[in-house]
Amino acid sequence: MTSEKGARVIECLYYECLLIEVVGRHCQVRNAAGSIQLSLWVIARGDFFFRWTFLNIRIIKCVNRMRDSEKGPVIGMRHMQALLLFLAIVVNYTARLSVSVAIVAMTDAATTNLDFPEYNWNGAQQSYILSSFYWGYIVTQFPAGFLVRRFGAKAVLLVPTLATAVLSGLTPYCVAWGGWQAFCTIRIVEGLFQGLIFPCIHEHLAKWSPPEDRNRLGAFAYSGADCGSVLAMASSGLIANGSMGWPGIFYVSAGTCGLWCLLWVLLGANNAPSSRLIGSREREHIERSMKRQDGFHAQKIPIPWRAIWSSSPFYALLVVRSAQGWANSTMQLQTPSYMHGVLEMDIKSNALYSALPFLAMWGMSYVYLVFADVAMSRQWMSLTTLRKSINTVSYWGPAAALIGIGFLDKSQTTLAIALMTINAGLNAGSGIGSILTIIDMSPNHSGMLMAIVNGIGNIFPLLTPLLVGVIVTESDSRSQWQIVFAMTAVVFFIGNLVYLIWGTTDQQAWDAEDYLQAKDPESEPNAQQMDFKSRTDSEAKAEVKAE
């Protein structure tokens, strides 16, 4: 009898291993729990339940390890590309945002280093300087989408970072020669170049991040904005107080941008097949994962403009990202002025405390990332629900905090800084909430869509410094700053509400390869998906060719 039971166990083991081999090799064991449940149902009829269960779970773990090994190394070139994108955002954000601290030092040398010139710029002129970056920034967003499709992210992303390095190094000399007008000109040109960056980032992520890694790689890369904000706010005040003075802020930015360019030339690659440093297993995994998606294709398919501009989820993205642009410009550019005017902080304390909200944002971005990974791996909710839930926390939470900030004065400095830190920390979720929805909806056109969304969204950062300059005529007026913060809270609320109603992560029909009957040179068109006009045209061309 014992031998019969042993034979039964061996027979079950054989069929179970065969099942796992088939599922593991051909389906990538997308849900190992299903295999375990099936095994327990078969085993429950035998006598060696516990021993068999233990053995079966070990088999499942071996298959999962085999599946994971097919992805290549734990830290591979796709992670290196995400790190390079992270650093690209860090150095460019530092160069962009350090001006908000530098301008305080340039107009109030008594609080920093007296060895360097001081400029008597009024509030309106300072607002022009802060907003002028976005005058150029929005112009190149749309062309960036075409450029990155034509030349690839490696070449296009190198140009703006190298230009930022040169322009940052020239800024002190240009300001000494031409005053605030020359400063505005430098910022406009810098904005023109940096407008190319985020469409490149999105396109590069779409090429390098398999679906299961998209949350991690995307959130990590975009957390560079928070890290860059921290460095810009914290380091700028320290540099301005040091021997280099406020010109040192621009020299340090120039050096870091130049160093990144060197790393990018050596390690960057447009996609996995073009990388000289990637291993064969990782390259095959990335290619297999991308081809498994309906929306990934090596060819550049035509852009369905009419369908995009008639898509309600696309308009929801425009609204929600525009709200983020408004809020970012208010918090990033106006925080030092608010702390200097209302809270009466000196430039060094101002810079350090201004960095706290962005430090919280940087740290919270990883908290959101871990939560998103756990939620998706355990299937707590759909991807759309996950993105909307995180985005709601990251928009409506800060809206409430902003209203509270407006009622505080210099006697409540600690509470004001705490609320600003909470505001920024909660807002970190937008990196996983709405911004990655662009790749979810349209991996084929993610670079172009990012160019449109970022271009329109950054019209508001162009306008908000000017609007703040009109509203805040006295920098120490709490009531005037209340209006600024209340307006930002309303924008936050409306932006997320629109996203909740019309936003989605579903891949759109217009992202399909054959939506405009694009012809793939490596495959035959699907005749069942062609309309009558397309069939007629194809037949006519075939007859002409035959004649």
From TrEMBL:
Keywords: Ion transport, Membrane, Sodium, Sodium transport, Symport, Transmembrane, Transmembrane helix, Transport. It is found in: Membrane. Gene3D superfamilies: MFS general substrate transporter like domains, Voltage-gated potassium channels. CDD domains: MFS_SLC17. InterPro entries: MFS, MFS_dom, MFS_Na/Anion_cotransporter, MFS_trans_sf, Nucleotide_channel_N. Residues 84-507 form the Major facilitator superfamily (MFS) profile domain. Its main location: membrane. The chain crosses the membrane at residues 83-107, 127-148, 155-173, 246-267, 351-369, 389-408, 415-439, 451-471, 483-502. Belongs to the major facilitator superfamily. Sodium/anion cotransporter family. This is Putative inorganic phosphate cotransporter. The gene is LOC117137894.
